[in-house]
Amino acid sequence: MTTPADLKYSQTHKWVRPESDGTASIGITSHAQEQLGDIVFVQCPEVGRQLQQGEECGIIESVKAASDIDSPISGEVIAVNAALDDAPQQINDDPYAAWLYRVKMSNIDELGRLLDAAAYDEVAEADKD
């Protein structure tokens, strides 16, 4: 799967889609879902929670492993993708459509510290080794 150029990425395989209203959607990358395998459960942070960049805020479980979700940016959680409660495999189907949660960003400058698609591809490739 191609890494979308319109997103920002963390070293820990999360993507961020900034919106024009100061919010952002967050999910896991194609590389991350490939490493995890068939996803069976997702626990997202609660709406209203204030997150700091890098803070652990949820769990994603697959048939192979459980992995912590860390927030790639700071902000207040304003929505979670409730559709994942009944169908977490949507992340395997299209990880860039199946967002986990949305935040109202509290520090937009953090976006500049995230990776673009080309830099993320290098991180993902190195992670395969």
Features:
single chain; six-stranded antiparallel sheet; OB fold (Dihydrolipoamide Acetyltransferase, E2P); 129 residues; three-stranded antiparallel sheet; alpha+beta
Can you characterise this structure?
- The protein has 129 residues and is of the alpha+beta class.
- The chain is built from 4 helices and 9 strands; from the N terminus they run E-E-E-H-E-E-E-E-E-H-H-E-H.
- A 6-stranded antiparallel beta sheet has the order 1-2-3-9-8-5. A 3-stranded antiparallel beta sheet has the order 4-6-7.
- A hairpin with a 4-residue loop joins strand 1 and strand 2.
- The chain starts with 7 loop residues before the first strand and ends with a helix.
- The model has no long low-confidence stretch (mean pLDDT 96).
List the helices and strands and how they pair.
Layout: E1 8-9, E2 14-18, E3 23-28, H1 30-36, E4 39-43, E5 50-51, E6 56-62, E7 66-70, E8 75-80, H2 83-86, H3 90-93, E9 101-105, H4 117-128
Antiparallel strand pairs: 1-2, 2-3, 3-9, 4-6, 5-8, 6-7, 8-9
Poorly predicted spans: none
List the total number of helices. Answer: 4
Give, in order, the helices and strands. EEEHEEEEEHHEH
CATH architecture: Beta Barrel
The CATH topology label is OB fold (Dihydrolipoamide Acetyltransferase, E2P)
Taken as a percent bin, the fraction of beta residues is 25-35%
The chain-level mean pLDDT equals: 96
Top-tier CATH class = Mainly Beta
Structural class: alpha+beta
